[in-house]
Design a protein that fits this description.
By secondary structure, the chain is α/β, with parallel strands linked by helices. The chain folds into two domains: about 30 residues, no CATH class; about 55 residues, no CATH class. The protein has four helices and four strands, in the order αβαβαβαβ. A four-stranded parallel β-sheet has the order 2-1-3-4, sandwiched between helices. The longest helix is centred in the first third of the chain and has 13 residues. The radius of gyration is 13 Å and the shape is globular. The mean pLDDT is about 90.
Length: about 100
């Protein structure tokens, strides 16, 4: 029997880049509750880049708390300078 869509989410690796530990932990818990495997948290821009370069990230959720570096990270991913998947899904949360 083929896996359900919910079961397939277990194989999706999500990286959360946010300096706000509580918010990142809440997001991680919500993603796990929705069926994602074990989301990874990166608390600094440098750690975010290291985790992206280690490979295997399918979705990245980056907060503007990473500073202006967040846009350099996105550009680096898109231009295949960071990591090995320039087509990964990227979300960027911005303060109003």
């Amino acid at each position: 029997m083929a896996p359900t869509k919910f079961e397939m989410l277990q194989n999706v690796t999500v990286l959360i880049g946010d300096t706000n530990e509580d918010r990142a932990a809440n997001l991680r818990d919500g993603l796990v509750e929705c069926g994602f495997g074990a989301p990874i948290i990166a608390a600094t821009a440098k750690d975010t880049v290291l985790k992206l370069e280690s490979g295997g990230v399918d979705v990245a959720i980056l907060a503007d708390t990473l500073g202006g570096r967040v846009f350099k990270i996105i550009r680096g991913v898109r231009h295949n300078l960071i990591g090995n998947n320039p087509f990964m899904v990227l979300f960027c949360s911005l303060a109003p």
